[in-house]
Design goal:
heterodimer, A: about 240 residues, mainly alpha, 7 helices, about 0% strand, B: about 280 residues, alpha/beta, globular
Chain lengths: ~240, ~280
């Protein structure tokens, strides 16, 4: 009895998964880098990240094409189908997250030479750290096909959402105290949003990973659970 | 990955929320076993075949899918050593009960085989054969049956001008549709198809599949196919059979592994063995 009838096809699936994980790992490093660039007003670094985005776009297209090729030529079904369809979506999440890092760098250029007070720097640092952590977890859960780690992302994201709210509050306070002008305040509010979005993309990746693992679809409660357990917006579960 | 109880319950949950009324069952098998002599060919099959649905049987060679199919119109009777244990109910009647006329069973439950097998007669006579045996004598009545059967099999326009020429001169795909038309001509309730497209090219296959979709409003169809894509394309529900090897006697017995709505079976099967078979991770 042979174990594997379609080894070439399954190698292609592995190739897609590794390609996405590698791209996603790149974004995981990009997030703290963008944060540093923002905090250090590093114009050279910003330029580097902005130009480097083409690389991500190119890899996203390559991986997408590989997915289409596999669908057209191999007609995947069951877990293979879930893996390919999810891959197409995850590629978009990763590519978009790279764009958001670029946006943070562009915001850094716009507010160049404006001093940020300690409160602002502190909250930017926290947001960047949490967004990077989410992305790292999403990437590793995807690569390991680990549904449990993927499921934890919703709650991790709830913390990032809290930080996002705090960030907005700190922006108001700094502006009210006259530490930053309105232009800078608006740019920072947008940056806060970028971090929050990166977290959402990581959560999407996690949901897709769970779909690959056992066919779980978001907004579809588990039959045996009470609703509180799957109500991700309440974020109070342990 | 091992199938978890969570997954199984998940499937049950999805079904429980199905807004549709329960379908009328044409066949219900209960603890069906088929033996060839002492050899157990298929073990413990419990199936419910719903009316006006297309049910596909898939599985590797020797898994017993054709054997089970042949139980539904008692074709196994024609194999001397074949013996059936358990029940096959057809609209609530035990098909293997006493007093059941196997010929009448086969009239109601028609069959289309792997290789097109038209009679070496004219197109017309192929279609009129069954109705004549059932006692239809009037020419006008036979003409009507021939035309309506050919129309329902989407073959009328192709053959209406050569009804008197031999069916053996038709293409393979046409011959197979003629066989379907011939099955339809005796107004059956169910049509069993045993790999009806395996000898046909993709265009002829496409026509048969389209035809199946059209006639399922009037008939219940069960199809055995080696082509998983075909099962995925045409069927409403799919039964996956596999082979169990008995190490001590070195015999192979067919088992029903999973019976599920087709879209579920091909996107997220409940059983790990189904998963491995449909994804080609199992030989």
């Amino acid at each position: 009895m042979t174990d594997e009838l379609r080894s070439e096809f399954h190698q292609q699936l592995d190739e897609i998964q590794r390609g996405i994980a590698s791209m996603s790992a790149g974004v995981t490093e990009l997030v703290p880098r963008a944060t540093d660039i923002l905090l250090e007003m590093d114009l050279e670094g910003a330029e580097y990240v902005i130009l480097g985005d083409d690389e991500y776009d190119g890899r996203a297209i390559e991986l997408e094409e590989l997915c289409f090729k596999v669908i057209a030529l191999q007609q995947p079904v069951a877990s293979d189908l879930r893996a390919v369809m999810s891959a197409v979506k995850i590629i978009a999440d990763v590519e978009r997250s790279a764009d958001l890092c670029v946006n943070i760098c562009k915001a850094a250029r716009r507010i160049y030479s404006h001093e940020l007070d300690a409160h602002l720097r502190g909250i930017i640092h926290k947001c960047g750290k949490q967004a990077a952590l989410l992305f790292k977890e999403a990437t590793e859960a995807y690569l390991a096909s680990d549904g449990l780690r993927a499921a934890a992302l919703h709650d991790m994201d709830a913390y990032l959402d809290d930080l996002h709210r705090q960030f907005i509050q700190v922006i108001f306070e700094s502006h009210a105290a006259g530490n930053i002008d309105l232009q800078v305040a608006v740019q920072l509010a947008v940056v806060a949003r970028f971090y929050e979005r990166i977290g959402d993309h990581a959560v999407n990746m996690g949901d897709r990973t769970r779909y690959i693992v056992d066919g779980w679809i978001p907004e579809q409660p588990y039959p045996e659970s009470d609703n509180d357990l799957t109500n991700t917006s309440s974020s109070t579960t342990t | 990955m091992e199938p978890t109880t969570e997954q199984t319950e998940h499937a049950v949950f999805a079904e429980a929320h199905d807004p549709e009324e329960p379908k009328e069952q044409v066949f219900v098998t209960d603890d069906l076993h088929v033996y060839y002599g002492d050899f157990l060919a298929v073990r413990k099959v419990d199936l419910e075949i719903a009316k006006n649905e297309i049910t596909a049987f898939i599985g590797p060679s020797g898994c017993g899918k054709s054997t089970v199919l042949r139980c539904f119109n008692r074709m196994n009777d024609l194999i001397e050593s074949a013996r059936v244990r358990g029940r096959v109910d057809y609209h609530g009647i035990d098909l293997y009960g006493s007093g059941i006329d196997a010929v009448e069973v086969r009239r109601r439950i028609g069959m289309v085989f792997q290789k097109p097998n038209p009679f070496p007669k004219s197109v017309y006579d192929n279609l009129a054969f069954g109705p004549r045996i059932s006692g239809v004598k009037k020419k006008s009545e036979l003409d009507d049956i021939v035309e309506s059967s050919l129309r329902r099999a989407a073959l009328w326009d192709e053959v209406k001008d050569r009804l008197k020429s031999s069916a053996m001169g038709m293409s393979g795909g046409q011959q197979q549709r003629l066989c379907i038309a011939r099955a339809i001509a005796v107004e059956p309730d169910v049509i069993l198809m045993d790999e009806p497209c395996s000898a046909l090219d993709p265009i002829a296959t496409g026509k048969i599949e389209e035809l199946m979709e059209e006639i399922k409003t009037e008939y219940t169809i069960i199809i055995v196919t080696h082509n998983m894509q075909q099962a995925a394309r045409v069927s409403d529900r799919t039964a996956f059979y596999s082979v169990e090897v008995n190490e001590t006697s070195d015999t192979r017995t067919g088992i029903l592994v999973e019976y599920e709505e087709t879209d579920k079976l091909f996107t997220n099967p409940n059983d790990e063995r189904t998963e491995r078979y449909v994804t080609g991770r199992f030989g």
